[in-house]
Amino acid sequence: MDLREKVAVVTGASSGLGRRFALDLARSGAIVTGLARRAELLESLGQEMRRSSPRSWTVACDVSDIDRFTAILGEIEDRHGRIDILVNNAAIGEPRAARSQSERGAVDLTPYRSVMETNYFAAVAGTLAVLPGMRERHSGAIVNVSSDSGRAPSPREVAYAASKAALSAFTEGIAFEAETNGVHLHVLYPGWVPTAMGRAAVDDGMPIPPKMVRCTEEQVSQLLLTRVGGPKIDIDATWLARLAPVARALFPTAYRKGVRRAAG
Predict the structure, then answer these.
(1) Which residues, 6 or more positions from 191, have their beta carbon under 8 angstroms from its beta carbon?
(2) Which of 21, 66, 147, 211 has its CA 20 to 30 A from that of 87?
(3) 3-class secondary-structure state, position 71
(4) Burial 80-94 (b: 16+ CB within 10 A, else e)
(5) Which residues are catalytic?
């Protein structure tokens, strides 16, 4: 996809992969709107984006507030006449409360709902909000950032893995009808990236993943820029995680032992 003058929206743009996506899209000539909760970080992002893309800007928004999120997407379409690229990157990690429910009869779904609201329902809402316009124009691309944990869940990230698995399934399912109208949907699997969220998971006890599934922000962003708008749904930053479902199907006992051992 020629990114020059394309209208792009990136959620979770204040730090980590989202910030890198927004900056690299702007440097490629796109008109970028970066969305995130932290206004102070967005201010510096906006200044940096406008050095290469003067019409780029930022908006403070918690995407789990679906009404506000979709309203902002509508405002962007009104302002620019269209949205060509949506990158649903915003996500939160595994809450400790989701792992600490041990009392019989004291089930609290609140931490699970909070993860699903941000990681899954916000991305679903964003996708459904921009899809009609893209289908009418017979052009556009949506990238939903998933995780290898959605394919190969571990004991330490049950809620997070479930949200990402749901996002992958939603994206692949809706892509069947969207691609007939010239709209491309992608699921991005970035591997393990040493962002604040990635490092926090390690600090919380997750073993550091092996080198073959680690990537830098720059590597993942360049992969997105290269593949967005292409024919493949999955955008894999590493190849190893694709083997996990195969290993689970063919060698289930050995696979589960290996996951338990890796999780400590």
Answers:
(1) 148, 209, 213, 214, 215, 220, 237, 238, 241
(2) 211
(3) helix
(4) bebbbbbbbbbbbbb
(5) 146, 160, 164
pLDDT band at 116 (very low <50, low <70, confident <90, very high): very high
What's the rounded Cα separation, in Å, for the pair 191 and 155? 18
Torsion-angle region of residue 167: left (phi > 0), alpha (psi -120 to 50) or beta?
alpha
Using the predicted structure, report yes or no on whether residue 25 has a pLDDT greater than 90: yes
Write the DSSP assignment of 99-132 as a string of letters.
G---STT----HHHHHHHIIIIIHHHHHHHHHHH
Token pair 């929206």 in the structure block, residue? 9
| Mean per-residue pLDDT of the chain | 89
Contacts of 124 (CB under 8 A, 6+ apart): 167, 170
Q: Give residue 140's identity as a one-letter amino acid code.
A: G
Sheet of 141-145, strand order: 57-60, 31-36, 7-11, 85-88, 141-145, 184-189, 234-236
pLDDT tens digits, one per residue of 133-172:
999 999 999 999 999 888 888 777 889 999 999 999 999 9
Q: Which CATH entry fits the domain spanning 7-238: 3.30.2310.20, 3.30.450.40, 3.40.50.720, 2.60.120.1440?
A: 3.40.50.720
Indicate the residue type of 180: T
Helices (DSSP H) in 12-92: which residue ranges?
Answer: 16-27, 39-52, 66-80
Q: Which residue in this structure is represented by tokens 């620019």?
A: 80
